[in-house]
Design brief:
Family: Belongs to the bacterial solute-binding protein 2 family.
CATH superfamily of the largest domain: Response regulator
Keywords: Signal
Protein name: Substrate-binding domain-containing protein
Structural class: alpha/beta
Radius of gyration: 20 Å
Largest sheet: 7 strands, mixed
Number of domains: 2
InterPro entries: Peripla_BP_I, SBP_2_dom
Number of strands: 13
Subcellular location: Cell envelope
C-alpha cells in the first residue's frame, strides 16, 4: 500500500474502454427521488453517493476514486470520497458511513475493512441508503445490498493452477503472505484458500487461513509433494511483505514458491529473497500497472488482474439508477455477488491455464 501511483486521466479512460465489456443496463430513468433543490443536467436531480475505500494511497483504491470522480458528472452524481487512514482503520470507515447517513445520500459504495463495520452498514441500510460493497464481499454477503467484485477465489485458483503447472512435478516449499493475522476478511481467505485449491491442496476451513495440513501432496499439474512453511501477515504493504518473507525464510530457507495477497507485498517479498541470496516463484493478485511491470521484469511470475475502476463506475451508475426508480442490479449466476472479471497475467504461459501476457495486461491495467 506504500506505492503512491495515481492513474492519469488517459489511463482511466483506457481502462474504461478495455474492461467495460461486462454488461449491466445501468442507464438512469426519468423517475426521481432526490431533492428538487439539487438538480443536475437533463432535468434530473443530483444523487448523493459516498465512496469509502480502505485507504487513499493504495493505487487500487486511487483507481476506484479517480474512476468514480471522472464518471460522476455523467450520471448526475454528487460524489463524496472518504477512506480509512490505512488498512485496518474500521473507525475511519464507520465515521464516513455515519456522515453519508447525515447527508441523506442515496447510497454508499464501500470496500469494507472488516466485520467491524457491519453494524454501521446495517444502520445505513435501515436509513434507506442502498449499499454496494466493492472488491471485498462482506461476511456475511447479505450485510450489503450487493457486491461488485473480482471473484477472489477464482483469482487465487488461477495463481495456484499456474504455479502447480510451472513446478512440473517438483516439490513445492510454500510461503503464504496473507493480509491480516488479527482480522477475518473475505478477500484474504478467498485468495489464500483459492491459491491452495488451485494447487490441488485440500483446505480444512474454507474461511480460515493456516489450518490446512502443513505437508502432503498437491494434485494439480503433474502433482508432487508440498510443504507449507508459513502464513504471515503482510498488511498488503511492501514493507510488510518484506518482513513477512524474512520470517518465513528464517523458518525454512528453501522456499521456492511464494503466494502474496497483492503486488506491493510481492515486491517486498522479492526484496527479502534477494537480500538472502534466494530465488522463488512469486504469484500475486491485483494487476495494477506496477504489478504488470513486475511480471514483465520477472519479479512476479504471474498475477491475477482485477478491475477496480469498473467496480466503482458500475456501482455508482447502479445507485443513480435505483435512486431514479430503476431496477436493482442482480448477482452473477451461481455467485452471491456481481463478478467484474479477472485475467491471469504472465509471460510464461502454461497448458490448461488461460492467461494474457504483460503487454496486453499493460493495456488494461490501472495506476501508472
Amino acid at each position: 500500500m506504500h506505492i503512491r501511483q495515481v492513474p492519469s486521466p488517459r489511463t482511466a479512460r483506457r481502462v474504461v474502454a478495455s474492461v467495460g465489456i461486462v454488461g449491466l443496463a445501468l442507464t438512469a430513468t426519468a423517475c426521481n427521488r432526490s431533492s428538487d433543490s439539487d438538480s443536475g443536467s437533463g432535468g434530473e436531480s443530483t444523487v448523493g453517493v459516498t465512496l469509502i475505500t480502505k485507504d487513499s494511497s493504495n493505487p487500487f483504491f486511487v483507481a476506484m476514486q479517480n474512476g468514480a470522480k471522472a464518471d460522476a458528472a455523467k450520471n448526475d452524481v454528487k460524489l463524496t470520497v472518504a477512506s480509512g487512514k490505512q488498512e485496518g482503520d474500521d473507525q475511519g470507515q464507520i465515521t464516513a458511513i455515519e456522515n453519508a447517513i447525515a447527508r441523506q445520500d442515496k447510497g454508499i459504495l464501500i470496500t469494507p475493512m472488516s466485520t467491524g463495520v457491519n453494524a454501521a452498514i446495517k444502520k445505513a441500510r435501515d436509513a434507506g441508503l442502498y449499499v454496494i460493497a466493492l472488491d471485498t464481499p462482506p461476511d456475511p454477503a447479505d450485510t450489503v445490498d450487493i457486491t461488485f467484485a473480482t471473484d477472489n477465489r477464482s483469482a487465487g485458483k488461477l495463481d495456484g493452477q499456474w504455479a502447480a503447472a510451472t513446478l512440473d512435478g517438483k516439490a513445492a516449499v510454500i510461503a503464504l503472505l496473507d493480509l491480516f493475522n488479527d482480522k477475518i476478511v473475505s478477500v484474504d481467505y478467498n485468495r489464500d484458500q483459492g491459491f491452495l485449491e488451485g494447487m490441488g491442496i485440500d483446505v480444512a476451513d474454507g474461511k480460515k487461513n493456516g489450518d490446512e495440513a502443513p505437508t502432503g501432496k498437491y494434485t494439480a499439474g503433474k502433482g508432487g509433494d508440498y510443504t507449507i512453511v508459513c502464513n504471515e501477515a503482510s498488511n498488503g504493504a511492501e514493507d510488510g511483505g518484506r518482513s513477512a518473507m524474512e520470517k518465513c525464510l528464517a523458518k525454512n530457507p528453501d522456499i521456492n514458491l511464494v503466494y502474496t495477497i497483492n503486488e506491493p507485498a510481492a515486491v517486498g517479498a522479492n526484496a527479502a529473497l534477494q537480500a538472502a541470496g534466494k530465488t522463488a516463484t512469486i504469484v500475486s493478485v491485483d494487476g495494477g500497472c506496477a504489478g504488470v511491470k513486475s511480471v514483465k521484469d520477472g519479479v512476479i511470475g504471474a498475477t491475477a488482474q482485477q478491475y477496480p475502476l469498473k467496480m466503482a463506475t458500475l456501482g455508482m451508475e447502479a445507485i443513480a439508477k435505483i435512486a431514479r426508480g430503476g431496477e436493482k442490479p442482480q448477482t452473477t449466476e451461481g455467485l452471491d455477488f456481481f463478478d467484474t472479471g479477472v485475467a491471469l497475467v504472465t509471460d510464461k504461459p502454461v497448458d490448461g491455464v488461460e492467461s494474457i501476457d504483460s503487454t496486453k495486461g499493460a493495456d488494461i491495467c490501472w495506476g501508472n
